[in-house]
Design brief:
Shape of chain B: elongated
Strand order of the largest sheet of chain A: 6-11-7-8-9-10
Number of strands of chain A: 11
Number of strands of chain B: 0
Largest sheet of chain A: 6 strands, antiparallel
Order of helices and strands of chain A: EHEHEHEHEHEHEEEEHEH
Number of helices of chain B: 6
Oligomer: heterodimer
Low-confidence stretches of chain A: none
Structural class of chain B: mainly alpha
Largest sheet of chain B: none
Structural class of chain A: alpha/beta
Distance between the termini of chain A: 37 Å
Low-confidence stretches of chain B: none
Distance between the termini of chain B: 14 Å
Strand content of chain A: 15-25%
Mean pLDDT of chain B: 91
Order of helices and strands of chain B: HHHHHH
Mean pLDDT of chain A: 87
Radius of gyration of chain B: 19 Å
């Protein structure tokens, strides 16, 4: 199966050093976007295994940070075209953004980029589509958003497990007496997983009554989670429509 | 196997087609008979797409051996459509012309993209020996 990589490059026709590495690589599908807003739009609509940002120093770190904050499960590689100052490198590290030196030789840069791409294969979320029709509540995320179905289950004080399956993978949210107790999506757990699931616009879900999780990774009341995540979602949509910085 | 030159051409042509599609979306909006409001954001997007095309067409068309054939038509579209508001104020005749020129560029690029994809498919089924034997026998692909 191919790795899907989204690449942000403000000038992909003339500054194509990194892009050319992919010309001779099999098994990697790339998509190139030119602005952060375009990248966010594409990331909302489609599933990618990784995101590579290349560009001028601080701008590339800024774009990578936006992606990290709005898409917590996404693997991000930042390739600045100039050497970064230490504070920017520390910021990247804090945000769990992998960096590669864009000023280094082609051979070395290629090695770093391909190492990142190969690492994606170990973290890939396998698409999950099948739904068992015997569950009590089944639905489609095209018609009901994750926020709506969770709101309904929490208001009616349900305990059980929501399973959401889409081309992005499988995630589970455990409720206990109308509160979110535990959430898991890939390597993410807790509130980060809930935030990611809120952005899903495609896929299916089902609810299994009575399944309680021993793990307890979410402490906040549902109302707080709902407001915070809807606000984050609004911010993500804002980034997708905002004019890029020149 | 993969051919680097072919992959580069495919990359360039898909970037060009993306920009031409966006330009068309905006031109169509500008020419809408209902005259919907043109926002600052749409005008900015139009300028941005136009700027990308203006700086890239010569380089990309040369790489694709399409410079002589398409540069004039592409420049006609970009000169006539200097802004979304200017597009809206075009006469019926000019609007028809800009659509026709856009269509000529888009169609040719689409055809070349198809040919390149077909070449890629043929190459994918060949191993390196077949590729070099084909080259020695002077039966290269279109690249």
């Amino acid at each position: 199966m191919e790795s899907r990589v989204l690449i942000l490059n403000h000038d992909p026709v003339f500054e194509d050093r990194l892009l050319s590495f992919f010309d001779s690589e099999d098994g990697i599908e790339i998509r190139v976007v030119r602005s952060v807003s375009e990248a966010v739009q594409v990331l909302i609509a489609e599933n990618f295994d990784g995101f590579i940002v290349e560009g001028p120093g601080s701008l590339s770190i800024e774009a990578a940070t936006v992606a990290r904050q709005h898409f917590p499960s996404l693997k991000v590689l930042c390739v600045p075209w100039q050497r970064l100052k230490n504070d920017l490198l520390e910021e990247a590290e804090r945000q769990q953004i992998t960096t590669a030196d864009g000023t280094t030789s082609n051979k070395r840069l290629r090695r770093d980029v391909m190492q990142f791409v190969r690492s994606l294969q170990n973290h890939r979320n396998v698409p999950e589509e099948g739904i068992d029709p015997c569950h009590s509540l089944i639905g489609n995320l095209n018609q009901f958003s994750a926020a709506e179905i969770l709101q309904m289950a929490c208001l009616s004080q349900r305990s059980g497990r929501f399973t959401l399956k889409s081309s992005r993978g499988k995630s589970e949210i455990y409720l206990h007496h109308g509160s979110v107790r535990h959430a898991v999506y890939g390597t993410l757990e807790g509130e980060a997983a809930v935030a990611e699931i809120f952005r899903w616009r495609q896929g299916r879900f089902y609810f299994e009554e009575g399944l309680i999780s021993h793990a307890h990774t979410v402490d906040r009341p549902w109302a707080h989670l709902l407001i915070d995540n809807l606000q984050k979602l609004d911010e993500t949509l804002d980034v997708a429509t905002v004019a890029p910085k020149q | 196997m993969r051919d680097k030159r072919l992959e580069k051409k495919l990359r360039l042509i898909s970037l060009q087609l993306d920009s031409w599609k966006r330009l068309h979306d905006l031109i169509t909006y500008g020419l809408d008979k209902a005259k919907p409001i043109i926002s600052v954001e749409q005008e900015r997007q139009f300028t941005e797409v136009r700027a990308h095309l203006l700086q890239e067409i010569e380089h990309v068309f040369r790489e694709l051996d399409l410079l002589a054939e398409l540069a004039g038509r592409a420049m006609n579209v970009l000169n006539r459509g200097s802004s979304l508001r200017a597009v809206r104020e075009l006469s019926t005749e000019d609007a028809r012309r800009i659509e026709a020129e856009w269509n000529a560029v888009f169609t040719r690029l689409g055809i070349v993209q198809g040919q390149l994809k077909s070449d890629r498919k043929i190459l994918a089924s060949q191993n390196i020996f077949e590729y070099y034997i084909r080259s020695l026998l002077r039966k290269p692909l279109r690249t």
